[in-house]
Design a protein that fits this description.
With about 450 residues, the protein is α/β, with parallel strands linked by helices. Among the domains are: about 130 residues, Rossmann fold, CATH 3.40.50.10860; about 150 residues, 3-Layer(aba) Sandwich (Rossmann fold), CATH 3.40.50. Helix content is about 50%, strand content about 15%. Strands 9-8-7-6-10-11-12 form a 7-stranded mixed β-sheet, with helices on both faces. The chain is globular, with a radius of gyration of 21 Å. Bound molecules: NADPH dihydro-nicotinamide-adenine-dinucleotide phosphate (NDP).
Length: about 450
């Protein structure tokens, strides 16, 4: 990792000391602090009020037992988390992740990132994240429902449309949100639509929320391209993952004239020179909860399954990591540079390791960090909350146009802030500083709380 500005080094040291073993959280904090030297120099009031130290300490951390019974009648125990990180701008907001790798350090890295991402959207949203080490893969609908009901039986007391509003993330899609919402409704005896986002259209959900993170990512990249007089037309695109974010990013790339030549899951990746059949992949993944290998089997000779090596070795103009944290490392970055990739934009949260970011930026590859590029999901969640509050529902076209406008404005804000702080063209510096100053000013205004 790079050396931090001297004043920030002590703060980072304290974060390491107070949060031992939480490596992903350390990485996320370091990445933000790395941009803040010029801000502290220009605005000493932030240091005087210990704004950064306060931002690094969650307002509340909830850890709880989640007991449930599997289909064979055996008792299972998982661990649930909700980290309510910062509520200076609005109620806590951020997704739930169900994956075997989830522990406090992952939830804290995601919650920390979420503070700045939510600030960048310009919506009145605080930052939070939660989840469990429960893995829904291979579980029956009944098992997933019993788990979600048990999870919500504890978590409900901390939620509310003006308090804390979860949504989906890895392993939590519309099925899980449905079971969670059903249990919340039953316990509280309230149809409080605004308490969760990512709901189904017929029970309080919003058009475009399912597609929003992937579509928003592609709108962001489209703005990067058009700022340089270019477009997606004829571009080769590689997308990692094949979940919610990846599938909808792929769909929008094809709509804008690009070709997605590879995508993946945790078992391997598929390469298809003529372009992935996104409709078929969606059907395999979403309707049948299948794997990449099932897609390749259904597709036939045109698709090539790779069980070894890295997806980032597939030559492309644009790389969109949309699976998970630290999935694109230094040697992957070197392969992308060798193959003349021009843009890397993060659909996932922190998928690019610090050494990969350094290599890419030094080689002149345009790099868009997740807290800016994947903010379309939470921005559309805020639109869902608006519709819930006003008992209204907007059309797909209207909502998609709002999403596109929000992504353009985040893009422009990143570049304007990077200019202001002497780092022209750096989306990382722009996103970190614009997100930070927005929250920091609200924290100053609200006093020491
Ligand atoms: P999904 O669960 O829908 O899909 C996740 C995809 O990533 C799957 O294809 C999964 O493969 C793959 N994946 C997960 N873990 C690993 C791993 N360790 N190694 C390789 N592949 C892996 O999740 P989402 O699409 O919702 O989320 C993807 C990323 O986007 C996450 O980083 C999330 O935090 C971020 N994000 C999501 C938002 C949303 O609105 N959903 C909003 C903003 C960011 P497999 O099935 O084999 O595990």
């Amino acid at each position: 990792m790079r050396m931090l500005d001297e004043k920030l080094y002590d703060i980072y040291d304290e974060v390491l000391r107070r949060n031992p073993g939480e490596t992903e959280f350390h990485q996320a904090v370091h990445e933000v602090l790395d941009s803040l030297g010029p801000v502290i120099a220009k605005h000493p009031q932030y240091a005087d009020a210990a704004i950064i130290q306060r931002l690094c300490e969650p307002e509340r951390q909830i850890i709880f037992r989640v007991p449930w019974v599997d289909d064979r009648g055996a008792v299972r125990i998982n661990r649930g988390f909700r980290v309510e990180f910062n509520s200076a701008l609005g109620p806590y907001k951020g997704g739930l992740r169900f994956h075997a790798s989830v522990y406090l350090g992952i939830v804290k890295f995601l919650g920390f990132e979420q503070i700045f991402k939510n600030a960048l959207t310009g919506m009145p949203l605080g930052g939070a994240k939660g989840g469990s080490d429960f893995d829904p893969k291979g579980r029956s609908d009944g098992e997933v429902m019993r788990f979600c009901q048990s999870f919500m039986t504890e978590l409900y007391r901390h939620l509310g449309e003006h308090t804390d509003i979860p949504a989906g993330d890895i392993g939590v899609g519309q099925r899980e949100i449905g079971y969670l919402f059903g249990q919340y409704k039953r316990i509280t005896n309230r149809y409080e639509s605004g308490v969760l986002t990512g709901k189904g259209i017929t029970w309080g959900g919003a058009q475009v929320r399912t597609e929003a993170t992937g579509y928003g990512l592609v709108f962001f990249v489209d703005t990067m391209l058009s700022a340089r007089g270019d477009s997606f037309e004829g571009k080769r695109v590689v997308i990692s993952g094949s979940g919610n974010v990846a599938l909808h990013a792929a769909e929008k790339v094809h709509q804008l004239g690009g070709t997605v030549v590879a995508c993946s899951d945790s078992t391997g990746y598929v390469v298809e020179e003529k372009g992935i059949d996104v409709e078929l992949l969606k059907a395999v993944k979403q309707q049948h909860r299948g794997r990449i290998a099932d897609y390749v089997a259904a597709r036939g000779a045109d698709a090539h399954l790779c069980l070894e090596g890295s997806i980032w070795e597939v030559p492309c103009d644009i790389a969109l990591p949309c699976a998970t944290q630290n999935e694109l490392n230094g040697s992957d970055a070197a392969a992308l540079i060798r193959n003349r990739c021009r843009i890397v934009a993060e659909g996932a949260n922190m998928p690019t390791t610090p050494s990969a970011v350094k290599l890419l930026t030094e080689a002149g590859v345009l790099f868009a960090p997740g807290k800016a590029a994947n903010a379309g999901g939470v921005a559309t969640s805020a639109l869902e909350m608006q519709q819930n509050a006003s008992r209204d529902s907007w059309t797909f076209e209207h909502t998609e146009a709002r999403l596109a406008e929000i992504m353009r404005s985040i893009h422009d804000r990143c570049l304007a802030t990077a200019d202001e702080y002497g780092a022209p063209g750096s989306y990382v510096t722009g996103a970190n500083i614009a997100g930070f100053t927005h929250v920091a000013d609200a924290m100053l205004a609200l006093g020491l709380v």
